[in-house]
Write a structure and sequence with these properties.
about 190 residues, alpha+beta, two-stranded antiparallel sheet
């Protein structure tokens, strides 16, 4: 598109806005995409929905993706202590209904959480893009609610008590297993 003699290239915008995968914001969005690829839930033409109640839908399962890293771009290439935010929500927006639903009392919207830890130090675009540089934990929300109650964040040692870390190629099977276990426990 050309406006007032200036060529505006959407591809150029996408490279400018998303080209740095190492930064926390883009690394988190990349982790959502990485999990979506593992689950096979992105269809042609799908676009990420900002502020949706949950990050992904896997069949009838609501999936929340949380990302952290062992290294941050702002830490000068050194290591950092990874944490994942898991607060209960006071409300959630459901894009398909274009409706904000209040929760009283606050609760977690997803059925399952996939925690994604980028492990490489220092963080670079190349190692963020490599699924082998990530570890994943898949945890039912019911387990988070029972074990961590109202806790607003979680670290690696606690995740290791809730689930075994897995590689990217095992994410789909782990989500299916956690979902089946939760459904059996809840009698669904």
């Amino acid at each position: 598109m050309v406006v007032d003699g200036h060529a505006l290239d959407i591809g150029g915008f996408q490279r400018w806005a998303m080209g740095d995968l190492a930064g926390n914001r883009n690394r988190g969005i990349f982790a959502e995409w990485l999990v979506a690829q593992a689950l096979g839930v992105i269809r042609d033409g799908d676009v990420r929905q900002e502020w949706e109640a949950v990050d992904l839908r896997f069949g009838d399962l609501a999936v929340e993706v949380k990302a952290s890293g062992s290294s941050q771009t702002w830490s000068g290439g050194g290591s950092s202590t990874p944490r994942f935010r898991i607060p209960r929500q006071k409300h959630a927006w459901f894009a398909d209904m274009d409706e904000m639903i209040p929760y009283d009392p606050p609760r977690r919207t997803a059925d399952v959480y996939v925690f994604c830890l980028h492990q490489s130090v220092p963080v670079t675009n190349e190692n963020v893009a490599d699924p082998r540089c990530w570890s994943f934990w898949v945890v039912a929300t019911s387990a988070i609610d029972e074990e961590l109650e109202g806790q607003a964040s979680v670290g690696i040692s606690t995740l290791n008590q809730l689930a075994e870390p897995i590689g990217w190629s095992d994410v789909k099977a782990a989500v299916e297993r956690v979902a089946a276990t939760a459904k059996a426990r809840d009698g669904r």
